[in-house]
Amino acid sequence: MNVQFRPEPSASVSIRTAIADCDIHPARATNDELFPFMAKRWHEHLEAYGKQAYHGMMEGPPYPKAQPNASRRDAWPPEGGPQGSSLSFMQKQLLDPYNVALGVLNPLNSGQGLRNQDLAGAICSAINDWQIEKWTSKDSRLKASIVVANEDGISAAAEIRKRAGDKNFVQVLLLSRNVEPLGQRRYWPVYEAAQEIGLPIGIHAFGFGGNPLTPSGWPSFYIEEMVGHAQCQQTVLASLVLEGVFERFPKLKMVMIEAGFGWAPSLAWRLDKHFDRLRSEVPDLKRKPSEYIRDHIWWTTQPMEDPERREHLFQVIDWIGWDKLLFATDYPHWDFDEPSRVLPPGVSEANRDAFYLGNAKKLYGIA
Amino acid sequence: MTSPLPGGVDCDLHPAVPHLTSLLPYMNDYWRDQVTTRGMTDLVSQSYPTNSPISSRPDWRPGQGKPGSSLADMQKQALDRFQVSYGICNPLYGVQMVFSEDMQDAFCRALNDWLTREWLDKDDRLRGSIVIPTQSVEKSVAEIERCAKDKRFVQVLMLVMGDNPLGKRAYWPIYAAAERLGLTIGVHAGSAYHNPPTSVGWGSYHIEDYVAQATAFQTQLTSLIVEGVFAKYPKLKMVMLESGFTWLPAYLWRLHKFWRGIRMETPWVDRAPLEIVRSNIRFSLQPVDAPPDPATLNRLFDHMQSDELLLFSTDYPHWQFDGDEVLPPGLSAELVRKIMIDNPLATYGRLQVALA
Q1: Is A107 left (phi over 0), alpha (psi -120 to 50) or beta?
Q2: Which residues does chain A have within 8 Å of residue B54's beta carbon, measured at their own beta carbons?
Q3: pLDDT one-digit tens code per residue, B7-43
Q4: Tell me, what DSSP letter sits at residue A358?
Q5: First to last CA, chain A
Q6: Does the distance separating the beta carbons of A305 and B199 come in below 8 Å?
């Protein structure tokens, strides 16, 4: 995280080797950019009614960001448009200087979390086409995520199957906050389709599903929303495990994106401890909750956990597994993690390689 | 196993109300009539179904009636067994679930009087928490002031999942009253079920709700810290009860990082979150959500960077440990003394007050 980020003139040692960036947010220069990929009906619908999410604002988020579009102040493209909307500027600011060999696109502000499921599906499908047209077909380092209108599991599954075998896509993207916890059966068609076409599911922190952001109601501040992503992600993961999603879909892999990983050991311990007492309620679980987490879950690193004492970080990673972490910058957002500053010294070369690139290539099937 | 010390303070005991009718003697005519005429049923919360394994250790479950409803059992199984000097009673009767603030108030008053007569009067070691009708801050303050005259009440009790985040300014008169009267605020696991029990909606299972309690404590700590409760009430101590604590270090790393990044949003937060936790927040010991392995536990205690945060608790009669293994393995004698005696006495100012 780096509020007063200033690009450095020369790349530091660690980024002369190639890295994967598993959380890049591409933006539209204008909303019209999607229109070529949508039926005319939806152009008119959007003009008249806009996008109606599970919160009341017609424009912008209910918790105002710390900076415009939650983005770095230096990330406005010179040709205009919002941060993250220019491929050439992304290449110049991110992909080239940091030697990004694999960049995973996670489009936000898609159709996910809209109340009108037909509109949500149309926007998601358009964004999937747009990712190919504007990004992955123009720079082979970039790979896309299939966004889906997941509240309607059946049509979301159809959108996923439509992209089967398309090498532009490396994962299916969901958000963490939805109408129900993500383990619920309404979402199972999404998991079934993802398993079938062999792609992992990425679950990115954020979204609105109509539920208050805490179990005690709506908090006041943006910082509460940001810190709260970790709590939302914990309940999402608990739901996935306890509903038996990984029993039902044993080949499914999931990536927890931008929600931290430091909480994973204590959540797993808590699940295991209370599963010991309460397992008769969830007889479909054949293994301890921590084992499903260890086998099925990967974690992106940004915003990197940052304890005062670095050995604490290493101890937490030992509990999680060096083979499960995926480096991410969150470009162009303000809490960007600069690759050369993320890992303190003292990490073995094998673990560094896995952390920065190897794990991501393996998970996403990139040679 | 780590042996407990005699003379400790058990900071989380749950005396059970046998039935709503048990509170009738402590209600006025109007509310007695309401309860009977309208056929109101017992107020058992989904957070602790009576027969759920979590609600009682198997060997603490009575032949009949609710676990925790017998003083003799509590004495034998907890107070005498662990030779405590004090035990703090935190009733978890589901009075917070009703939606009328008037009814909530009547039930809270009855519950507090019931606790005084049926428990505190019958064992000198017992101390009480004041259960408040949080839907009305005015009524909550009045109930705190009414009960606080009895020095055996050492704490105000709120649920971790209530109507609104606990840092919200509307609640501050409660904190002002607690600070003024030398009471801690205890925040206990459990939901009023006025909001979905997780931040992403309603799950399917009891175990899901229980696991989610820890995340509710995390969001409440954020709210309390960033709203500025402890800048306004620096002497106020809050105790997270049955919260788990192994999540604390990683939670604070994240909160600290974002506080550094966007502190311009809450400029009144003039100290780092970790410092605020060290000075104002405490945690009950049980449940210990960690493997029973001394090396892991000692790493965790090291991550917490303080030996003053934990307060001894059995969580009686809830099932958190077996046998006498109330303390996790591998604790030093010094840490045992801090957890069992020094930390609770430093937290609960009223434990040191002469009752006369």
Answers
A1: beta
A2: 274, 277-278
A3: 999 999 999 999 999 999 999 999 999 999 999 999 9
A4: I
A5: 30
A6: no
Q: Which two tokens stand for residue A85?
A: 């909307």
Chain B: closest CA distance from residue A113 (Å): 12
The pairing of strands B9-13 and B86-89 is parallel
Structural domain total, chain A? 1
Asked if residues B297 and A266 have their Cβ atoms less than 8 Å apart, the reply is no
| Cβ partners under 8 Å of residue A193, min gap 6 | A156, A157, A158, A160, A161, A172
Question: What was the pLDDT predicted at A13?
Answer: 42
For residue B161, the cross-strand partners are B191
Task: Give the three-state DSSP class for A174.
Answer: strand
What pTM does this model have? 0.96
- Domain extent for A41: 19-364
Among candidate residues A273, A281, A209, the one with its CA nearest the CA of residue A242: A281
Q: What are the residues facing B155 on neighbouring strands?
A: B129, B184
**Are A308 and B305 inside 8 Å of each other by CB?**
yes
- Name the residue with tokens 């009891």: B206
Cα B225 to Cα B272: distance, rounded to the nearest angstrom: 9
Contact A31, A46 (CB under 8 A): yes
The tens digit of pLDDT for each residue in B94-140 reads 999 999 999 999 999 999 999 999 999 999 999 999 999 999 999 99
Quote ipTM for the complex.
0.96
Contact, B140 vs B131, CB < 8 A? Answer: no
CB contact residues (below 8 A), chain A span 203-232, against chain B = 209-224, 226-228, 230-232
Closest Cβ–Cβ partner in B53, B199, B249 for A235: B199
Q: What confidence tens digit (pLDDT) does each residue in B286-343 have? A: 999 998 889 999 999 999 989 999 999 999 999 999 999 999 999 999 999 999 999 9
Buried (b) or exposed (e) across B89-108, using 16+ Cβ within 10 A?
A: bbbbbbbbbbeebebbbbbb
Provide the CATH number for the domain around residue A351: 3.20.20.140
Structural domains in chain B, CATH included, are 9-352 (3.20.20.140)
Q: Which of A63, A222, A227 to mutate to test the interface with B (most CBs of B within 10 A)?
A: A227
Q: How many CB atoms lie within 10 A of CB B3?
A: 12
Is A99 contained in some domain? yes
Reading across the β-sheet that carries B310-311, which strands appear in turn? Answer: B9-13, B86-89, B126-131, B153-161, B184-191, B238-241, B281-284, B310-311
How is residue B234 written in tokens?
Answer: 């620096």
Residue A2 covered by a domain: no
